[in-house]
Amino acid sequence: MPFIALKKSTGERVDITKLKSPREELVKGDLICQLCGVPMIIKSGVVRRPHFAHQPSIPCTTNYGYHPESDEHRAGKELIAKTLIKELAGYSTAGIEYEWRCEETKRVADVAILFPNGWVVVHECQLSSITVEELQKRTEDYLNAGIDVVWWLGKNADTDTNRQWCLSTFGECNTIDFKALSTYFKTDRL
């Protein structure tokens, strides 16, 4: 469920989570997928959070490695972004974008920190099962594009093997604990 679309008329990125009344604030027919360029619609209901969707008859034909997200995944991304800005003074001048499309890697980064001097650091919130090989491949894709990456593991991705890989690769392992009454960050360091 994408939370980002583009305005066809201006190319501007729209984050639906920042809007109070998306259907009142956005023009019907002016929204397109940031990945494949096809029209998007607004989905909103009593249970589900407002989000964008492809029209049922027009599926996304992108070659980006993008998959639907859970509400927990979205909450994890928001928590990562808010914590980084609060805790890291060097991030205060940077822009933050969710679902940032990286043309070089054909990937959509969960949270991208965009510094005024062109430096980019992506933070990936991984909750579903993933292998060390896939973590390595995604990391290499970003590094080969000159982009630093930080992994945040939670739920099924937070395994001893993945933690050890993060520790040996980055010298730290960032985790998101969804079992606690309030979500918080914990960083293990070598």
Describe the structure.
This protein is an alpha+beta fold and 190 residues long. It has 2 domains: 4-54, no CATH class; 71-189, 3-Layer(aba) Sandwich (Trna Endonuclease, Chain: A, domain 1), CATH 3.40.1350. Helix content is 24%, strand content 31%. The protein has 4 helices and 11 strands. The protein has helices at residues 22-25, 71-87, 132-144, 160-170; strands at 4-7, 13-15, 31-32, 40-43, 51-54, 95-102, 107-114, 120-126, 148-154, 172-177, 184-189. The strands form 3 sheets. A 6-stranded mixed beta sheet has the order 6-7-8-9-10-11, with helices on both faces. The longest helix has 17 residues, at 71-87. It is globular and about 50 Å long.
Question: What is the mean predicted local confidence, pLDDT?
Answer: 85
Strand order of the largest sheet: 6-7-8-9-10-11
**Morphology:** globular
Look at the helices and sheets and give the structural class: alpha+beta
Largest sheet: 6 strands, mixed
CATH architecture annotation name of the largest domain: 3-Layer(aba) Sandwich
Q: Unreliable segments (pLDDT under 50, ≥5 consecutive)?
A: 181-185
Give the amount of beta strand, in percent: 25-35%
**What Rg is obtained from the alpha carbons, in whole angstroms?**
17 Å
Reading the helices and strands in chain order gives: EEHEEEHEEEHEHEE
